[in-house]
């Protein structure tokens, strides 16, 4: 996508790459070097391919040194302390400037034998940088390409998990948690919840359009670019703009975002063939590790309630759970005090995860 149409500065990528060439050549020539690449906007083949006078340039360096197997199993802080005597002394600092003083350079440094281990997991932002903004400069044995392929292979699973989290815990926070904050007179807390869930919604939307969530510096530019061809991105961009310019109040903003969460869930059903009919019922057992252990409880078997979102208003379901029993527990169940009956959940709200 042509990023220069979304900013007010000129693209000087060719000049920046030319200035980085001597350093890239020196890195490639070192005997310990396995691979070298250019990341971010300076990657000519990347999605962004945009560098201006305010940009830095990110390089990636993969080296290999003989590291004993027991050392490879150490957590990173202990590992990096232990291998100091094994590292080549020519390695530079992470961040420095070129001789002109106006180009900042970042060199992301990795040890192949450590980084290639399966338990070393890259976060979403790092996966985005390597999957979508990498020019491979030197990789004679294909180690860098193989490493990137292995680390970003989890995108589909991560995207699904992020969507499940958003459409259960996030949706509940936005509808029920924010309401409680407003009733307590803490509008600031309700706003904090809304802005947090809006941010998560944007990330999930990037996943659903087949992208990794981008670096924060380029997040809104990327959303604006995608809005030209995706209605959900356009709606999120409009909501974000309306909210940040204070053109809408918190109640309107929340209602709009809740509607967009419904759109996201519909899209999830199209993208994921195994998307559950009731995402909350699925999540409390299979996603969250501290919610519910039984796939089907006595209360579920007694009521056969289709939607978990309505269970709190089912007298039988509540009674069986309260008495911790099967059908026999209902014999001890007395009629509830209807004056304290909970109102039905509004809209598509899911059952509360946190109640205070």
Describe the structure.
By secondary structure, the chain is an alpha+beta fold. It is built from 14 helices and 5 strands. The protein has a 5-stranded mixed sheet with strand order 3-4-2-1-5, with helices on both faces. It is globular.
Total beta-strand segments: 5
- Main pleated sheet: 5 strands, mixed
Task: Work out the helix count.
Answer: 14
Q: Which outline best applies?
A: globular
Region (Disordered): 328-356
Organism: Luedemannella flava
Biased composition (Basic and acidic residues): 330-341
Protein name: Nucleotidyltransferase
Descriptive keywords:
single chain; 356 residues; alpha+beta; Beta Polymerase, domain 2; 2 domains; 5-stranded mixed sheet; globular
Write a short abstract of this structure.
With 356 residues, the chain is of the alpha+beta class.
Question: How do the strands and helices of this protein lay out in sequence?
Answer:
Blueprint: H1 13-29, E1 33-39, E2 57-63, H2 69-72, H3 76-82, E3 95-97, E4 104-111, H4 112-115, H5 124-132, E5 134-138, H6 143-151, H7 155-183, H8 187-208, H9 216-227, H10 231-244, H11 250-271, H12 279-286, H13 298-303, H14 315-323
Parallel strand pairs: 2-4
Antiparallel strand pairs: 1-2, 1-5, 3-4
Helix pairs in contact: 7-8, 7-11, 8-10, 8-11, 9-10, 10-11
């Amino acid at each position: 996508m042509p990023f220069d149409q979304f900013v007010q500065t000129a693209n000087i990528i060719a000049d920046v790459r030319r200035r980085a060439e001597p350093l890239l050549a020196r890195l490639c020539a070192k005997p310990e070097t396995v691979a070298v690449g250019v990341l971010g906007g300076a990657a000519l083949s990347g999605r962004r391919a945009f560098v201006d006078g305010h940009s830095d340039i990110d390089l990636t360096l993969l080296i290999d040194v003989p590291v004993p197997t027991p050392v490879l199993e150490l957590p990173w802080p202990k590992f990096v302390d232990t291998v100091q005597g094994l590292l080549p002394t020519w390695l530079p600092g992470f961040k420095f400037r070129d001789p002109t003083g106006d180009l900042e350079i970042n060199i992301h440094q990795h040890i192949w034998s450590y980084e290639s281990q399966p338990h070393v997991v890259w976060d979403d932002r790092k996966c985005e940088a390597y999957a979508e903004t990498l020019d491979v400069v030197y990789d004679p044995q294909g180690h860098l390409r193989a490493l990137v392929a292995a680390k970003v292979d989890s995108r589909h699973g991560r995207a699904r998990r992020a969507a499940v989290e958003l459409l259960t815990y996030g949706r509940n926070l936005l509808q029920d948690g924010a309401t409680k904050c407003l009733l307590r007179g803490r509008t600031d807390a309700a706003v904090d919840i809304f802005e947090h869930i809006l941010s998560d919604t944007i990330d999930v939307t990037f996943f659903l359009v087949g992208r990794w969530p981008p670096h924060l510096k380029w997040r809104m530019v990327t959303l604006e670019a995608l809005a030209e061809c995706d209605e959900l991105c356009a709606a999120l961009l409009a909501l974000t703009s309306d909210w940040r310019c204070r053109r809408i109040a918190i109640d309107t903003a929340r209602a709009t975002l809740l509607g967009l969460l419904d759109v996201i869930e519909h899209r999830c059903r199209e993208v994921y063939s195994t998307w559950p009919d009731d995402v909350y019922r699925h999540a409390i057992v299979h996603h969250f590790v501290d919610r519910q252990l039984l796939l089907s409880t006595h209360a579920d078997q007694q009521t056969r309630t289709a939607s978990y979102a309505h269970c709190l208003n089912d007298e039988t379901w509540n009674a069986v759970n309260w008495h911790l029993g099967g059908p026999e527990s209902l014999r001890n169940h007395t009629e509830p005090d209807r004056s304290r009956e909970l109102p039905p959940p509004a809209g598509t709200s899911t059952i509360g995860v946190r109640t205070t």
